[in-house]
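Let's study a protein:

===
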Amino acid sequence: MLEKDLARDHGRIAFRLAARSRQCRYEVIEAEQVSTYGWSVQGYPSLGAYRKRALPGWRHSPRDERGVLSCPMVRLD
């Protein structure tokens, strides 16, 4: 677990995958609640990419080591 803040209205959690297959491109997964049922999930190829995610130009760079997976998700009851 890298970060966890579930006390607020919009929870956020980030974790590093300790063991993953070679098919999994993302080492760090971050999930943030954006509404009652909606979550934004981001995947980062490395811990370094996760830590540098707020730097200008990092997220939209064409370089593979800066590639970020962005996936909206909805919780169903």
